[in-house]
Amino acid sequence: MPKGIYKKEGYNGSPIERFLRHVNKSDKCWIWVGCKVGNGYGHFRNDSGLILAHRFSYQSYIGPIPKDMNVLHSCDNPSCVNPEHLSLGTHTQNMRDMWSKGRNTHKGEKNTKAKLSWEKVSKMRNMYNSGKYSQKELSIIFGVVRSVICGIVTNKLWVIE
Questions:
Q1: Which CATH class is domain 15-100?
Q2: Residue 91 — φ and ψ, nearest 5°?
Q3: pTM of the full predicted structure?
Q4: Which sequence spans correspond to the domains of the chain?
């Protein structure tokens, strides 16, 4: 069977044909309506395996993605696969863009995996600054690894910008 053609029902056609079956095109964004990961980015199975849908779109319509480069969204919509909204950039450029547009909602208590709250962080800093508790003791009390405690008490983590 030629590469890119699948026998299984629903997998007929070239990768781009199968890809487009999961896209709702509008005048602006092309919304990926296929499978998505938890952060809203689509994923797609091509000949090489699983790939993020926006990366597949970039490769299919624009060209190769150099190693260590990200595919950035000008529309800030992780489900968008419109090649006109995609461009290459470094991780640093992507993070700067995120901060400049106020999309850094994964920090502190807003992170869905956060074990701490601002109240606990404040208490932890007060306990450490009193000199009565070591970082190791605080890691046991608050249930996080010592490297997190170190980052918090040295104001490298959980910092108000």
A1: alpha beta
A2: -60, -40
A3: 0.61
A4: 15-100, 108-153
